[in-house]
Structure formats: C-alpha cells, structure tokens
Design a protein that fits this description.
Helix content of chain B: 10-25%
Shape of chain C: globular
Order of helices and strands of chain B: EHHEEHEEEE
Helix content of chain C: 25-40%
Number of helices of chain C: 14
CATH architecture of the largest domain in chain C: Alpha-Beta Complex
Oligomer: heterotrimer
CATH class of the largest domain in chain C: Alpha Beta
Largest sheet of chain C: 9 strands, antiparallel
Chains: A alpha+beta, B alpha+beta, C alpha+beta
CATH topology of chain B: Nuclear Transport Factor 2, Chain: A
Strand order of the largest sheet of chain C: 15-21-20-19-18-17-16-25-24
Distance between the termini of chain C: 31 Å
Number of domains of chain C: 2
Number of domains of chain B: 1
CATH superfamily of the largest domain in chain C: Naphthalene 1,2-dioxygenase Alpha Subunit, Chain A, domain 1
Shape of chain B: globular
Bound molecules: FE2/S2 (inorganic) cluster, fe (ii) ion
CATH topology of the largest domain in chain C: Naphthalene 1,2-dioxygenase Alpha Subunit, Chain A, domain 1
Radius of gyration of chain B: 16 Å
Number of strands of chain B: 7
Largest sheet of chain B: 7 strands, mixed
Number of strands of chain C: 25
Largest interface: B-C, 42 and 51 residues
Strand order of the largest sheet of chain B: 1-4-5-6-7-2-3
C-alpha cells in the first residue's frame, strides 16, 4: 500500500502525442497498450548492455524492466499461473 | 474486415492535406453562408439546399464519434452528390413519411471556427470550417434536441460559395438515436 | 372505451387471457400497449427463448469482448482464450456495479472499478483485493452473471436466459435453411457482421417491427417514394400479381420468398439490384467455389426472413430488434459482409447506409409507421388489429408450411400463434 502511494506520487505526467497512422497514442514512456482496465506504456530500452523492455503502468507511474529471459518466462507461463497473478490480492492489494 | 481493401480510398475526413487558412475568406461571409445553409434546411427549401452542393459533394453523419471508414462500416448518412439528389427527390414526393409532414425545425450555429485549407482531389484548396450546432426538432413523436459539431468544406465557384463536404458528428452518436428525417 | 363485449383483458373460465386477445383473424390492441403484458413477455419470451445477440465476427480474436443488449439485460459477449464465446451479464457479484464500461476491447479479465474484484472473461471470479477480509483467497463462490445458454449457428450468436428449453437448432427449425442460404452467397461459405451497427431508437412496441418485417402488403405504400425515385423493381415483387410467396416457417419465423420472381428473370444479381458486370470478382469466386450451382445461388439471392423474436435478415442487412419498454425498442442494423465477397462487400455497406438506420431511405419510413401505429393503437376504438388478409387463399406447400400470396398476412398469423403458445406456457 505504501509502496503504491509512493509510486503514484512519483509518477511522471505524460504528454500524449498522436501517433499518425496507428491506433493508440505514444507518450515519452513508449507506445501505449491499454484497455478500460489498465494503461501501460511499453518501449525498448537500450541503456543496458542488452536490450530490455521498459513497461510503465501509466495509472501509477510504476516502472518495471523486463529482460529477454523474463519475457520468455512470461510467454511460457502456464495460463492458470498467469491468471493467479491477476488476482488483485496476489501482490498489489495483498492483506 | 473481409472486404478487399486494396482500392479503398482514404477516409474523407482526413483525405487531403490540411494547410493554413487560404486567403480571400472573410469570416462574416463564411458565417452568412453557414447560416443560409441551415435556414434552407430548416425551411425545407430542398432545391435551394441541394443547389449549394458541388459535384464532388460528401454529406456524412457517422456513428461512434468520428466514425470508422465510411466505405467499410455503416454510417447514419454517407451521401455523394447523386445520393443527395435521390434523397431530395424522395422527400419531394411528399410521401417520405419520415419527413412528411416535415419536422418543424430550427438550427442554432455557434463556435464557428476557420480550421484551415484542405487540399481537394482536384488540387484546389477548400476552406475547412467547423461549428457547433443545436437543432430543435418538433414532430408528432415529440420534441428532440439534436446537437453536435459540423465540419464544412466550402469553395467559391463562379463567385458563389458552394458546399463540398459536410460531416456532422452528433454528440450522442454512440447511442440509439431516433429517426433523422430532416437535413441535419 | 365503448366496450360492447367483455373487456378482452378479462379472463373467462376455461380460456386463457391470450385466447381472448389473440384470435385467428384479429389481435387486440392492448398487446402493444399494456405494461403488464410487456412484463410477461420479458419473462416468457425475452428471458426464456433464444434471442439473437450478435455475431462471432464481432469478437474475432481470443479475449475480444463487445457490449451487447439482450432485451433489458446489458450483456458482454466475450471470446475466451480458447475461442469459446460467452455471454456475461454486465454486473459485478460484489455490489452489482456494471463491470465493463467500454463498448468493446480485448482483455482476458475484467476488473470492476468500484472495489477491484476481478473476473476472467468467462465470468468466473478470480480474485478480490485484501483477501483477509474474506478469510483468504478463493473463498467466494461468486461470479458475473451469465446468460444460461449460449449457442451459435453460422456465427450468429443467440442466448437464452433459461437453463432448459429447446436447443437453438430446434428453435431455429426451418429458419436454419434461410441462414444457410445467406451464407451460401459467400464464396467461402461464411459471413461476418463486422461493419458496425446503426442504432435506431423507435417509439413503438417491438411486435410492430417483427410483424412488419415480412409484411408484403406495405412496401408499395410506405416505400413508394423511394421505389419511384430510384427506379427500383422491388415494388413489383410485393404486388398482387407477384409470384413471390409469404411463408410461415413455423416457430414464429417467416419469410417473403422472392425466389419465384427471380427465377423467372434468371438474371444473376438481380436480387441485389445490379448486373454481373458490376461485380465480376465476386461472381468469379462464386463460380470457382460452387461451379454450376453458383448461377442458381446468385439468381435466387439472399433470404428475407424474420426469425422469432428479434433477428431479421433483409437480404443484405441484418437487424437485431431489442425491446426497451412496452412502447419503445431499438433496431440495430448492419450490412452483411461475405467472406471472399470482393467488391460486393463495399456495395453492401453503401446500399445499407442508403437504406437502413435513422436516416435510411427505407427504414426511416418503416419506423415512422411503427411510431404512428403505436400512437394509433392507444386510441380506444376499434380495439382490434385485423390480420385476416389471405386467410381465404392460403395453401400448404410441399414441405408442409402455410404459404400465402406476396401481400398476405400469413407471416403475422404464424408469429401470433407461436407468441400465444409461449405466453400461455407456465412462467
Ligand atoms: S461492486 Fe464491483 S467490486 Fe465492489
Ligand atoms: Fe418496409
């Protein structure tokens, strides 16, 4: 809970620019993947020694980097396991 | 979409480059033209209204906000010049029951804004103008308040201002709307 | 009211209320105006029988969803990750909030904005925030509401809110063949309804629409204004000289079978009001797919069929009729798109825009009639609507269906007899 409030406070404010010819918008944090339930910006980050995916929860400003192996793991996550992670009390709203 | 889209023309609202407002247009003349167009519609002067249109006319009333591509998805109205003419002939039979008797109608236009110049298919530059409107319609069914934003493209032909394009985005076009029999 | 006979609403010993209101040659005006009858229709028809909701092509990808209406129920049509289509009732199991707000989207799960309860797109509750308040995870046997039975035929998705009842195929009965006929005009044997929907608010009881869809008596009058101007030959199909027939297909379904007329002309695409040179790509694909039979298919054309209670296929348009109240309904309409349809698809969109929806040059006039009809039946006298046209000349065809002439009310009588059987059934 505290972590989360902290993250909200620190979240960058995004200037949304129209990205011509494509659905959705681009913000400095990346291309936006969104539905009515969540808004997440994704972009490739090349600051490290190998490329990573930078994922930002635009509603809270929280950022996570996913490396190639982590992404591959997501691809291979069993559906039931992924569904468990979607349980709001699994991590974010625990307790 | 299952249609073969290779020969799909660009959607008309974004077709043609948008440039600065071309020279030679006085806001007051533009407004007077828009007011006249609305009055001809309100007073069922079908011939007068039809005569405003150019040969490459597009009259478009989309659904769901700005609408999807009007050649691959449905719209409330998407008329070219010949369909405008069919629509006028139908209403002039006096047996277009959705508009017989005609609605009592008054449009109010506001927030008139010169948007820019729009390059048309012939390479000329039309003036793009938009305006908010409210239209109060009275019929036996009841009174209906319509509202939205209209984008017009106008050009001068032989000194007369003519209407090449009119797109009417109703504020409630994401909901069920009643019969729209009049000229919006 | 000048009641010369006992009020039809009054029940007499040994007679159902509907024996009184629905007679072979006439039906009573209160069927369209009485709120208690509408409430009973919701229970006995809309919440029970198979109702057309949408088409699988509206949720083409896994985890797609789209909001739909099933009578008074706000429904979310979803396709789960395995491809199965579900109809969820858009209501949170916690405190009843509407869960999905967008018209459409793609998501494996839905999170209610009120307190964060999260559901899979099959409706199953997968979790809630701060689970200690419920004694831990997975403690609640709850989920979003579901339309009890979901089934589709040729991609047309129907829902029934009753746990039990006839299967969809039993319900569709002979109307299945009409849907097949439509789909058989696609070179790939598949249609989609992905050209968007027009939504036409109509201040009239839904039954006026259901009855009018296969009423061949009205087109010359109501649509004379456009037939004349557009030089359309449709008017002649619905004259008393027409060889077309009105057929009651059973189970409340009916059609205007125009094939006899088109067979006489033997011209491909005449049914669509065009000529072969305008749609060469489509006809070539049809010939490739169906060989010799392509000619018959493209001569006979698409069906004009009303499937009880709310799916109307008008050749190239599909209508979904949903009631709002006793005196109001919404007509949703779209253009059929044929898989492999080539240039025909865009023509169908264009023709549909011209014809249907709130400004359509055909349907706006029908709708004006529905609304005047509703105002008319609120008058006191005469109390009845006459549905006897053609009783004197009805016959039975080789398949055992009752058929009347092109302008006869055979379809309406079929509608009413099925309606009556549903309304007389126990709730
Ligand atoms: S009402 Fe949906 S989570 Fe509370
Ligand atoms: Fe009609």
């Amino acid at each position: 809970m505290n972590d989360e409030m902290h993250a909200v406070g620190e979240g960058p404010r995004h200037e949304v620019t129209l990205d011509e010819g494509a659905a959705g918008a681009t913000v400095p944090a990346g291309r936006v993947v969104e539905s009515e339930f969540a808004s997440v910006a994704v972009r490739l980050d090349e600051q490290g020694n190998s490329v990573r995916l930078r994922v930002e929860d635009l509603r809270s400003g929280r950022v996570r980097f996913l490396d190639a192996l982590e992404l591959e793991t997501v691809v291979w996550l069993e559906d039931g396991h992924l569904t468990q992670l979607l349980d709001p009390s699994h991590e974010r709203w625990r307790g | 979409m299952s249609a073969h889209l290779t020969d799909l023309p660009p959607r008309p609202d974004t077709a043609g480059e948008l440039v600065d407002v071309p020279d030679g247009w006085e806001v007051r003349d533009v407004e007077q033209f828009l007011f006249r167009e609305a009055r001809l519609a309100d007073e069922n002067d079908y011939d007068g209204w039809e005569a405003l249109w150019t040969d490459d006319a597009i009259y478009w009333v989309p659904v769901d906000g700005e609408g999807d591509h009007p050649r691959t998805t449905v719209s409330i109205i998407f008329d070219n010049r010949s369909r405008i003419s069919t629509r006028m002939k139908q209403v002039k039979t006096g047996k277009r029951y959705a508009q017989a008797p005609p609605s009592n109608l008054r449009h109010i236009l506001g927030n008139i804004e010169l948007i820019g110049g729009r390059i048309n298919a012939a390479g000329g530059t039309d003036l793009e103008v938009s305006a908010n409107f409210l239209a109060l319609e009275s019929r036996a069914r009841g009174n209906q308040l319509w509202g939205g934003r209209t984008t017009y493209r106008i050009r001068r032909i032989d000194g007369e201002i003519r209407l090449a394009y009119k797109k009417v985005v109703l504020v409630d076009n994401d909901k069920a709307v009643p019969t729209l029999g009049f000229l919006v | 009211m000048t009641a010369l006979v006992p009020s039809p609403a009054e029940v007499v010993e040994g007679e159902s209320r509907y024996d009184r209101l629905i007679q072979p040659a006439r039906v009573h005006g209160t069927l369209y105006t009485d709120p208690s009858i509408f409430a009973e229709e919701l229970r006995k028809i809309w919440h029970k029988t198979w109702v057309f909701v949408g088409h699988e092509s509206e949720v083409p990808e896994p985890n797609d969803y789209v909001r739909k209406q099933l009578a008074d129920q706000d429904v979310v049509m979803t396709r789960d990750k395995d491809g199965e289509v579900h109809l969820l009732i858009n209501r949170c199991a916690h405190r009843g909030l509407q869960v999905c707000d967008d018209k459409a989207g793609n998501s494996s799960s839905f999170r209610c904005p009120y307190h964060g309860w999260t559901y899979r797109n099959t409706g199953e509750l997968l979790g809630y925030p701060y689970n200690k308040g419920y004694g831990g995870k997975n403690k609640l046997e709850l989920g979003m509401g579901k339309v009890a039975r979901v089934a589709s035929y040729q991609g047309f998705v129907f829902g029934s809110l009753a746990q039990e009842g006839p299967s969809l195929e039993e319900h569709l009965g002979a109307a299945k063949g009409e849907i097949d006929r439509l789909v058989g005009l696609s070179p790939e044997g598949k249609v989609s309804l992905d050209a968007g929907w027009l939504r036409h608010q109509t201040k009239a009881n839904w039954k006026f629409l259901a009855e009018n869809e296969t009423d061949g008596y009205h087109p010359q009058f109501v649509h004379g204004s456009i037939f004349g101007v557009a030089g359309s030959p449709i008017g002649a199909l619905y004259s008393d000289n027409s060889t077309a027939v009105t057929r009651a297909l059973g189970d409340g379904h009916s059609e205007n079978d125009l094939r006899p007329e088109f067979r006489t002309f033997d011209e491909p695409m005449r049914w669509f009001g065009t000529t072969p040179d305008k749609v060469p790509g489509y006809l070539a694909s049809m010939a490739e797919s169906y060989g010799e039979d392509a000619h018959r298919r493209t001569v006979e054309g698409a069906p004009h069929v009303m499937i009880f209670p709310n799916l109307f296929i008008a050749e190239i348009q599909v209508f979904n009729i949903q009631p709002v109240g006793v005196g109001e309904c919404v007509q949703y309409s779209t253009a059929v798109q044929f898989a492999g349809g080539h240039e025909l698809n865009m023509r169908m969109v264009s023709q549909s825009i011209g014809s249907v929806g709130p400004a359509g040059m055909l349907l706006a006039d029908d709708t004006e009639m529905y609304e005047r009809n509703q105002r008319g039946v609120e008058m006191a006298d005469p109390e009845w609507l006459d549905v006897r046209r053609g009783l004197v000349r009805e016959t039975v065809d080789e398949d055992g269906f009752t058929i009347g002439a092109a302008t006869d009310e055979t379809a309406m009588r079929g509608f009413w007899s099925h309606y009556k059987s549903l309304m007389e059934a126990d709730a």
